Every structure is written in structure tokens, then in C-alpha cells.
Amino acid sequence: MPLRRLTSPDPRRSVATVDITTETFADTIEKNDIVLVDFWATWCPPCRAFGPVFEAASEDNLDITFAKVDTDAETVLAGQAGITSIPTLMAFREGVMVFNQAGALPKSSLVKLIDAVRELDMDEVRSQLAEADQPA
Predict the structure, then answer these.
(1) Residue (of 100, 95, 73, 107) closest to 84 by Cα position
(2) Is 127 a catalytic residue?
(3) Looking at the domain 6-133, which fold is it?
(4) pTM of the model as a whole
(5) Sequence-ordered list of residues with C-beta below 8 angstroms from that of 119, at least 6 positions apart, any chain
(6) What percent of the chain clears pLDDT 70, i.e. is strictly above it?
(7) Is 44 labeled as catalytic in the residue annotation?
(8) What residues does each domain of the chain span?
């Protein structure tokens, strides 16, 4: 069952991002077509700068799940994800990680990333992954 957009107290506006935890991470990735995950912390200035860019993109792309992971609260998840620098942005399409980069993206780069993830031929991506898993 896909995540549903939460309704804010103002009925004209939906909450476009979701907080995910160690317990909800796998389900979020597996049950949604496209998921962008922002690993962040409150004390991180680049994270605070990227937050509004990520939020605005989420409001413009309601067909995509925009998830946030507070690395201070979710240390186990951050460790499992190999997070060594924040902010880190990951993109998943059909359960496959297709992007993983540390650093705050400007709006134009985030828009290009979203477009690129949407345009991926996932059959080709899976084929390339299968070839990479073959012994040499």
C-alpha cells in the first residue's frame, strides 16, 4: 500500500514530505515508484539551506515520495545507508537506488535529477545491474 500524502490543518495544502525511520525505510522504498530521501540534521547549515529546496520540489511533484531522515534521531539507519556526510540525497526508482550524492543541490540540479529519474528505462537499469553482478 503506497504512502499517502498527509493532510495539513490547512485543507488547501498537503504535506508533501514524510519522515522515515529504520522501521519504515524499506517499505517506503519498496511500495512507492520514485522516492527521494534527504538525510539531514538540524545542526547542519547546508542541510538547512537544502531543506526549503527539497520541500518546494515535493510540493511540485506530488507523484513522488519525498522522504526525510534525521540522522541524529536515526543513527542506525544512517549507518546502514553508509551516510558519512550530510546532506546526502538518495533517489530510488522501483526499489532500486539510482542516485546517491552528498551535498546540497541547487533547485535547478534537483529538477534535472527528478526529470532524469522519471525518464530512466528501468528494464535497462536492471539489465546493467545484472551484468555487473556476473563474475568476470
Answers:
(1) 100
(2) no
(3) Glutaredoxin (3.40.30)
(4) 0.85
(5) none
(6) 88
(7) yes
(8) 6-133
